[in-house]
Each structure stands twice: as C-alpha cells, then as structure tokens.
Automatic annotation (TrEMBL):
CDD domains: PEBP_euk. This is PEBP-like protein. Residues 1-18 form the signal peptide. It holds the Pfam family PBP. Keywords: Signal. GO terms for molecular function: peptidase inhibitor activity; phospholipid binding. One of its GO terms (biological process) is regulation of proteolysis. It comes from Calocera cornea HHB12733.
Amino acid sequence: MHLPLASLALLAIPLTAALCLRVPHTLPIPPIPELNEIKRSFKDARIVPDVIDEFDPSAQVFLEWELDMAVTPGKSVNKSDSASTPILTASNLPFGHRGPYLILTVDPDAPSHSDPKNSPFRHFLQTDLWLRGELSDELPYAWKLENESTPLSEWYPPAPPPGSGPHRYVTLLYAQPDDLDLTFVDWDDRKRFNVKRFAERTGLNEPLAGLWFYVEVEDNDGESLVPADPQLQLVLDGT
Ligand SMILES: *[C@@H]1O[C@H](CO)[C@@H](O)[C@H](O)[C@H]1NC(C)=O
Ligand SMILES: *[C@@H]1O[C@H](CO)[C@@H](O)[C@H](O)[C@H]1NC(C)=O
C-alpha cells in the first residue's frame, strides 16, 4: 500500500486542530461524578424530598459557563459567574436517544431556606434539547445539548437576597414526551413551581440526571440574617 505523504498530512490536520482548539484549562478538569455520589448528594442536601421525592439518576447533566468552569454537584458558585445562560451538557444519556430532552432549574430556598414561601422558584425551563454530537468545551466526557426552540422560562440569574444564606439551585434533565402539553403553565409567575406536580401532570416520569450548586450572597457585614440550617451547612461545607 502506498499513501502519498500529502494525504497523511491531511489526515493529521483535523486531529491536531481539534487538540489545539480546545479551550486551555487553568483549573484541573473535575472527574466525572459517579451516579451514586450524585444520588447521595441530592439526599444529603435534602433536594430529595424538598424538590423531588425520588432520584435515581442514570446520566449526568452539567451547566457550563464560558469561564473555564463547569458545575459539578454541590459546588459553590459566585453570583456573577452564573449570571448568563449556561451551556448545557450531559454524559451517559440513553444510547441512541438524541432527543428531545427537557431541562429545568429551580431554587427551593426562595427567599430563604428557613422561609421558603416562594419556593420552588423557577429559574429556567428549556424544552427541545438535542444531542448533535458536539463535545463540551470544558468536560471531555460530556456532550452539548442544543436547543431547537427558545427557553420557555429564560435563565433567571441566581440572585439570593443579601444575608439570606445559601440557596440551592437544582437542575433536572428529563426525556421529553412526544405529547408534552405545557399550556397549563403560567409563564409569568415563576414562584411556587411545584416540580413534583409538574412532572406528574406532564407525564415526565423521573429525571434522568440532576445537578445542584449553591450561591450565597452575604450582607454588608458578611453575616447571614437567617438562622443557619446546621445539617445543610454541614453538607455545603463538606463539598
Ligand atoms: C468569587 O468571587 C470572589 C470575589 O469576586 C473571588 O475572590 C473568588 O475567587 C470567586 N470564586 C470563584 C469560585 O470564582
Ligand atoms: C436557544 O436558546 C437561546 C437562549 O438560551 C436563544 O437565544 C436561542 O434563540 C435558542 N435557539 C433556538 C434555535 O431557538
């Protein structure tokens, strides 16, 4: 077999280009979180049962902002870093099922963990997400989920009231049913968005994947105005 040198060079170009174009990381790439760790962290942080009753993930979902950072479960995130719509990526989704998927994000601590009267507050709801075979820029094991429609609830940047303690932001990924009917949702009102009832009413079944992070904004004295929840604080300090 005789391959001219030029064609070998051509073969090499896409690989080299792909390697060079990768966004350089200043932080180490976090290892892919294990499913049983994610499941446990949802229980430890009491997202089960505050947001959903059961959680048995079979895949991983990630939120990525273009700042050399991807969110993994239980991470502390700066308010300013989470201000824009994140890039959505996932690993281990059912083989051959490219979409559509639905993602939502809620805050069960609005306006605070000890006074959750507006909870869960809906921060994001995006339908019609598809895997198109494009790798994440940040995580070598995740694939981009691309939206084919505009979000029904656009990303509402986390903005905990100063001194209201840590707020959990919970993202859940579902397989989107073909006959999804969302006409009953009041899109103008983001408060008290009951995820359990929403999933029941829309026939979403259980989430395939989930992720949570927390944001805390201190008041001017660097103090929390609400009593700390010792059990939650322990989880947050440990992650
Ligand atoms: C969050 O912001 C503070 C102050 O702007 C900065 O010192 C800190 O490194 C930031 N943390 C992260 C995780 O980016
Ligand atoms: C995808 O979502 C973004 C906002 O998150 C929106 O600007 C864009 O138009 C959407 N894409 C499509 C094809 O609707």
